Amino acid sequence: MPEPGSILGHPSLKNPLKGNPCYDIAMISFTEFDYQMMRRALELARQGEGLVEPNPMVGCVIARNGQVLGEGWHQRFGAPHAEVDALANATGEVRGSTVYVTLEPCCHHGKTPPCSAALIRAQVAKVVAPQADPFPRVAGGGFAQLREAQIEVATGLLQAEAADLNAPYFKLQRIGQPWVIAKWAMTLDGKIATASGESQWISGETSRQWVHQLRGRVDGILVGRGTVEADDPLLTARPAGLRTATRIVLDRRAQLRSSSRLVQSVAETPVLVVATPAASDEDIVRLHAAGCDVWISPAEEKADAELLHELLRELGTRGMTNLLVEGGGQVLGSFLAADAIDEVHVFVAPKMIGGEKAPGPVLGAGISQLDRALSFANLRVEPSGDDWHLSGRRAIE
Fold first, then answer.
1. Active-site residue identified among 3, 32, 49, 83
2. Quick one: which of 103, 125, 6, 126 has its CA closest to 55?
3. Is the pTM of this model over 0.70?
4. Residue 36 has what pLDDT?
């Protein structure tokens, strides 16, 4: 169990609100009914995955005297927030009720009116929330408004579970970078292709379907130009998912071929080319004319780790919450070197290739000391057709 105020999924995400009087996780005794209601609120919140970003997933249950009066969740970006949805769905008198919500109610006018005001108008008696919202325009202000209105506020219930649910949102708010999901398929002996470069298909159809579902809920899908040259991928979700991810190509010299399927399909799905000042004006103009977005890193000679963190900050300013990195090996190695991987999904096929020249999934210099290896917590292993799907999030240090 992490300490109160820490956020699962990234060692740097300590909560700056810890110690704030509006964010006092006290040693409160919660009942089994409280736990049941918050677990239900978390279930409801999960239904917004892929639909609400860059907002957090939030669920809400309203109850009184052991009876549920209403439920709701944030169903899509721009739609009513969970608390307002639950109030609208409530049957019976909500005055004097307890509201279980998976994140601090907002207290500002954004796409929708503040939820704190709606709860105050409804004259609820108590609000139970796992933790504060780090969004600067909230950051404990919702709790403060509720308390000023003589509404009891209790925090800390299932805080670890709630933090895990919205770890990508918390990372975006705290360090301005999207959550990075690394994905690859490999053989039992750790190869992602043969020595000749053949890789289609290492994983089976079931695994590939799962990857398409993952693509359909992220904001960006990133590969290196080498992968584009070798495989000419589309990098789209098929069938279309809840979100349309921007296809991102690391290409220092902006030499992505105009004939590639990425460029040819740019009218349907965006393409972002990540280049440096080494790129020629001619190639930049060519890709712009084809409809691609070309982002130029400020410096030409930056190391891969610096370039990646600059890119991640740029993607954060664009509101991207989840970034899927599909490789190849040099790109995944660069993300490892940059300490920028938050989550992994690995598909292991029951095959062996062998060979010294057959590539592995994560290349580059690697980590020289075993005690500095990137570790993952709560690793899940489940069958995926004939393959095995391993997934986990980085361990808290």
1. 83
2. 103
3. yes
4. 96
